[in-house]
């Protein structure tokens, strides 16, 4: 995985194109994301929140929150989903795991916000193009 950061989106896009040119690929060669799991757990109890929070690397899940769990393939799309989620609603990113074959995103917050986030994230992932090769 490679991350490119810049204050200028144009610079980031140019750098991304340079990487694609170097490996002789185009953006159309990417694998289309596939959602494997999309689950909502409403009104999380305090004991469940405690268990989830002990291994998290992001924000905390609180009692009464709604938890959204998204599993996507290829794994790197987990980061894309988390980014889209943050733009879509006032939610907390509990954890993002984007290594290996499958990526997972754990999102928490108020039910209405999490439902909106789920709707937008799944829409954005469905809009992405690419080849369907999940070997």
How would you describe what is shown here?
A four-stranded antiparallel beta sheet has the order 1-2-4-3, covered by helices on one side. Helix 3 (77-88) packs across helix 4 (111-127). Helix content is 38%, strand content 21%. It starts with 8 loop residues before the first helix and ends in an 8-residue tail after the last helix. The radius of gyration is 16 Å and the shape is elongated. It is α+β, with helices and mostly antiparallel strands and 135 residues long. It has four helices and four strands. The longest helix has 17 residues, at 111-127. A hairpin with a 5-residue loop joins strand 3 (92-97) and strand 4.
Give a short overview.
This protein is of the alpha+beta class. It has helices at 9-22, 46-53, 77-88, 111-127; strands spanning 34-41, 66-73, 92-97, 103-109.
Name some characteristics of this structure.
about 140 residues, four-stranded antiparallel β-sheet, 4 helices, about 20% strand
Q: Major sheet: size, sense and barrel closure?
A: 4 strands, antiparallel
Class from helix and strand fractions: alpha+beta
Strand content: 15-25%
Low-confidence stretches: none
Strand-helix topology:
Layout (H helix, E strand, L loop, with lengths): L8 H14 L11 E8 L4 H8 L12 E8 L3 H12 L3 E6 L5 E7 L1 H17 L8
